[in-house]
Amino acid sequence: MSQHAAGRVRAALAAALVFGAAGMPLAAHADEITVFAAASLTNALAEIEKRFEAETGHDLVISLAGSSALARQIQQGAPADIFISANPNWMDVVEADGLIEPDSRFDLLRNSIVLIASGTDAEKVDIGPDLDLSGLLGDGRLAMALVDAVPAGVYGKAALESLGLWDGVETKVAQADNVRAALALVATGEAPYGIVYATDAAAEDDVTVVGTFPDDSHPPIVYPAADLANRDFPAEAEFLDYLRGPEAREAFERQGFVVIEQ
């Protein structure tokens, strides 16, 4: 082979390292990013995961559960990189333990809580102090996420207490490990009614939203996100930036979340 031809071969090989078979640039370095996220983010993050991985070459490993369970796992040393909580208080707990990177925390989303009924043709109700929720339940149960730990349950209990309804239904509450589990109890008919996020109700065809709890009946529902402090690599910041970008915004809004302006 001539020197000139060998030079062309070397140039072609170099180009192959920079461009993929489809002519698209390859990621300079692909990382695995482990994301601990509230279960209510299931649908939105499934969409975001596909698009982020396709665009960056990074691999997202998403673990979904109640924010309280995730926070405790982080406290116990679970190897997560990003935490998205459905409640600022659980992010506060992790931050107080020095487990998030300084200045990486920001408020990402807002949500609301609704009363849902099993089936697709349930009658609407006016949610207020005059609602006979106990009578509505009859011998059935009110499905809720854990009312003293999981944010959706905490918000729901606060709303019921604020409206003077909690004492009448406390003994009828069926508590689930997370909000998606509470949603499933209603969707399958095991509980006639439940309290979940509006975004969860929108993701399930077998329930009816019969009322929305007034905003002033519970603390604001805010989802903070942060980079955890167990390790530091550029892909973490890249993903957090992506969450604040237009494509993630579209995914969140499609699921009914309100994106907080940064």
UniProtKB/TrEMBL annotation:
GO cellular component, as recorded: outer membrane-bounded periplasmic space
Family (UniProt): Belongs to the bacterial solute-binding protein ModA family.
Record-linked SUPFAM superfamilies: Periplasmic binding protein-like II
GO molecular function: metal ion binding; molybdate ion binding; tungstate binding
Family annotation (Pfam families): SBP_bac_11
Binding site for molybdate: S40, S67, A152, V179, Y197
Quaternary structure (record): The complex is composed of two ATP-binding proteins (ModC), two transmembrane proteins (ModB) and a solute-binding protein (ModA).
Span of the signal peptide: 1-30
Protein name as it appears in the record: Molybdate ABC transporter substrate-binding protein
Keyword Transport recorded: no
Coiled-coil intervals, chain numbering: none
BP GO terms, sorted: molybdate ion transport
Keywords: Metal-binding, Molybdenum, Signal
